[in-house]
Amino acid sequence: MIPVDSKTYHLLYTDEFGDDVGLDEVQLLDPPLKERIPDLLALLDSPDQFISYQAMLILSAWGNDSGIYFLDSIIDDEKIHESGFELHRITDEDNVYDELAYATYF
Fold first, then answer.
1. Domain of life of the organism in this record (predicted)?
2. I need a surface site. Which of 17, 61, 68, 101 has the fewest CB within 10 A?
3. What whole-number distance in Å separates Cα of residue 8 and Cα of residue 105?
4. Helices 49-61 and 65-77, axial angle in degrees (round to 10)
């Protein structure tokens, strides 16, 4: 669990006003918050794979090339479906590819 008062939490889950909006809403911010991009890029190298994954979702949704390259690399690695990052709330099936498609749709 990411501490609520951490910089990582702020980057991944808050809007431009600092309000908690969640990852999905951060992906939808328009225009993207350019001041966050360097820090989100740094999170791609996080030892916590889930944090890297979430940073990649935001960067990809914002059309950032590095985020999209990271997305491409984790798909090529073929281990993303074993991550358990996006389990369906009812069936417990892995929805990670749905979330990746959703991020690139933006």
1. Bacteria
2. 17
3. 24
4. 130
Domain presence at residue 1: no
- Number of structural domains (the chain) is 1
Sorted by sequence, the CB contacts under 8 Å of residue 102 that are 6+ apart come out as none
Domain that holds residue 25: 7-105
**Backbone dihedral region for residue 18 (phi beyond 0: left; psi -120 to 50: alpha; all else: beta):** left
User: How does pLDDT run across 41-59, given as a tens digit for each residue?
Assistant: 999 999 998 899 899 999 9
Residue that wins the pLDDT comparison between 94 and 25: 25
Helix H, strand E, coil C: the string for 36-66 is HHHHHHHHCCCCCHHHHHHHHHHHHHCCCHH
Angle between helical axes of 49-61 and 96-105 (0-180°, round to 10): 30
According to DSSP, residue 18 is labeled S
The pTM of this model reads: 0.81
